[in-house]
Design brief:
With about 350 residues, the chain is of the alpha+beta class. The chain has 15 helices and eleven strands. It has an eight-stranded mixed beta sheet. It has a three-stranded antiparallel beta sheet with strand order 8-7-10, with no helix packed on it. Helix 5 packs across helix 6. It is globular, with a radius of gyration of 22 Å. This is Cupin-like domain-containing protein.
Length: about 350
């Protein structure tokens, strides 16, 4: 039990101290399955509540919001873990899941709250993963579909990029030229952009760095960012240099939107879980990147934490909607990866 709590503490590195203390307080006094969900309260929540409780004009709304959050957490935990009358809870779960699955939201949930209300996962996707991530080559689409594609666990395919010209052609200056030529339309502006720790406002700013910083000359700041290529003109140019991975099931379709992540040693994506629809693949075109994978908190008692290095030319496949993941670019060349979802 202590080991699991220590893992949870290390895992929730983005949470403020009061949030972790709240989770431990409730876990110690109310040893029920709801504790992992309470630990998912977004970073800074404790400070936000303290500020408003100290202001009489803001205390009322803060208390109401806190009560609402508590009720929703209890509801999620009860539906996932409680059975009534010989399995009623099991029957309610799919009913609740389908009741609201196709309904449009009046208001979009803020990103900071999405993690708090993430539906709990069944731990079957990670329970059988122990120690090392399988590495495959020359795997047929049929074998991949039967054994790997939809099980959620991570797997690395070592030969998917053999015939891709992207391995040689893609670099910072290639993307800069593509976006100078095709990236001035409104569609390119709407594509999602991840600045991570750089402070960049958009892809144009990220692709306007001085050469000294691009080359990681001494005294310059490191950089790492990612974006989606949702503009059809840019998609067409980029996909001339890579194809749908050969191992994907024959009846699966690749997403129309691909993702690119690029940056130098010492940086990467923070620990997070994605909010996309499907599992995904990500090919390491240049450099090497370490992936740190963590099961969701409700699976800490059953599943292991993993660390795997994806080398140049390798492709990692996993369900990033289930696995929390963090990446670190390793010393060496600038890391460039491209990936997409598949069904």
């Amino acid at each position: 039990m202590d080991e699991v709590h220590e893992k949870m503490k290390n895992f929730l590195i983005n949470s403020d101290t009061s949030g972790i203390e709240l989770g431990e307080f409730l876990a110690n006094r109310f040893p029920t399955p709801i504790a992992p969900y309470l630990a998912l309260v977004p970073p800074g929540t404790g400070q936000w509540i303290r500020r408003r409780l100290g202001n009489p004009w803001k205390a009322g709304p803060a208390v109401l919001l806190l009560l609402l959050l508590s009720l929703l957490v209890l509801l999620f935990a009860a539906v996932n873990h409680t059975t009534i009358g010989g399995g009623e809870g099991q029957r309610w779960r799919p009913l609740l899941a389908t009741l609201f699955a196709n309904e449009d939201c009046i208001l979009t949930m803020p990103a900071q709250l999405q993690k708090a209300f993430r539906p709990p996962e069944s731990c079957g996707f990670c329970r059988a993963v122990h120690g090392t991530v399988p590495r495959l080559s020359n795997v047929s689409p049929g074998e991949f579909a039967r054994n790997y594609a939809y099980r959620g666990g991570p797997v690395i395919v070592t030969d998917a990029t053999v015939n891709w010209t992207a391995v040689d052609r893609f670099d910072y200056w290639f993307f800069k030229r593509v976006y100078e030529t095709h990236g001035n339309g409104p569609k390119a502006e709407r594509c999602q952009f991840f600045p991570y720790q750089t402070g960049f406002r958009d892809i144009r700013e990220a692709l306007s760095l001085p050469e000294s910083r691009v080359q990681y000359n001494p005294g310059t700041e490191p950089w790492y960012f990612g974006w989606s290529n949702c503009d059809p003109a840019i998609v067409k140019v980029l996909r001339e240099h890579y194809q749908r991975p050969y191992f994907l099931p024959a009846d699966s379709e690749n997403s129309a939107i691909d993702w690119v992540f690029m940056g130098g040693p010492g940086l990467g994506a923070h620990m997070h879980v994605d909010n996309v629809r499907l599992p995904s693949w990500q090919s390491q075109l240049k450099g090497a990147k370490e992936w740190i994978l963590a099961p969701p908190p409700e699976c800490f008692y059953q599943c292991e934490f993993l660390s795997v290095v994806v080398q140049t030319g390798e492709t990692i496949v996993l369900d990033t909607n289930k696995w929390y993941h963090k990446t670190n670019v390793l010393p060496g060349p600038i890391s460039i990866t491209v990936g997409a979802e598949y069904d």
